[in-house]
Write a structure and sequence with these properties.
Strand content of chain A: under 5%
Shape of chain A: elongated
Distance between the termini of chain A: 61 Å
Helix content of chain A: over 70%
Oligomer: homodimer
Number of strands of chain A: 0
Order of helices and strands of chain A: HHHHHHHHH
Mean pLDDT of chain A: 89
Low-confidence stretches of chain A: none
Largest sheet of chain A: none
Chain lengths: 195, 195
């Protein structure tokens, strides 16, 4: 029997199903029919909540960006260096677990639309601001600040490491997740000195 | 009057037009009609050379990847460190000149297809192999080699710097292209020591 839900709950449920399905396929392969079926509603009713397929995709991708930020949010009661480590461990775990889906978040295949690029940029900007904050550099969160450019690019470095590393067969990986994070922190320290 | 060209020349001409148009728009916004018109042929004849729109897009994106490799190819008679500098200066210039198009190469908007991701990965792998070669590390071009992982991720770092830097108004940029390249080389030296 179809369950009647308030609009907000229904919307959240549908986005949640989209997120779950994103684990195994990139956004542009998400099937509206499959999402509606999983929710036990008609395709027509889904379009009542999200007028177009694009609206639904944007909602799902935005939720994916928020989830990345949430999952990597460190415990604010820890010292800043511990927070940074915690954030990076969570980030590496996140990328490893959902590698294909994460790559499609980074590298597009966005169904000919730019919303993935935008959500991705905003997520990276938030992570950059968070790291600057942990480094005590929150006052320099301006686009042209050399430290901000360095931290933003360092996140690209860590992301690439995490993608390549998690793409290797487990036995071939030259380091543990912890060592990858240690390397990343050492890289940040040394790159900051150059900027 | 429509010019008659041998098949290979026609194919090359069409891809060349596609490449030119890629300067101002991402691949998925490339209009087949506009390309055919520019070549002075019918849409039908274009599809004679490239059976589907996707075939044409793949040809154009592959050519874009080859062009990046060609443009950044250093003079092999120079000492390795000079070659690295030359390559990076060309890379920064390439990204700056075609920023939007380059971002769509990196970040997708690939019309719901994975070919851009693949061409991008191959191009990055070639650049990585080239840098390893210049560093005298060509023997370690194996996916799981720590030096290879570092160089691959360092290219992501340089790419991100070049994208963010060239997105700033010229007067706001905190460094010249030469300084950006100096920083990138110093970063490579220091990151290599960590790996």
């Amino acid at each position: 029997m179809r369950q009647r839900l308030p609009a907000e709950d229904r919307r959240r449920q549908l986005v949640g199903i989209g997120l779950m399905m994103l684990r195994n396929r990139p956004i542009h392969e998400l099937s509206i029919d499959a999402v509606a079926e999983e929710a036990g509603i008609s395709r027509g009713l889904l379009f009542h909540y999200f007028p177009t397929k694009r609206d639904f995709y944007i909602a799902v991708i935005s939720a994916a960006g928020r989830r990345l930020l949430r999952v990597t949010k460190p415990d604010p009661t820890l010292p800043p260096d511990e927070q940074l480590r915690q954030m990076l461990l969570a980030f590496v775990a996140f990328v490893s677990r959902r590698r294909d889906s994460y790559i499609s978040f980074v590298r597009g295949a966005a169904g000919g639309d730019n919303y993935v690029v935008e959500v991705y940029s905003e997520t990276r900007a938030s992570l950059t601001a968070r790291v600057l904050d942990l480094l005590g550099e929150s006052t320099v969160d301006q686009p042209a600040s050399p430290v901000r450019l360095t931290v933003h690019a360092w996140l690209a470095y860590v992301e690439d490491l995490a993608i390549e590393w998690s793409g290797l067969p487990v036995d071939d990986r030259p380091s543990s997740p912890e060592e990858l994070v240690d390397h990343s922190i050492a890289a940040l320290t040394t790159l900051r000195r150059l900027s």
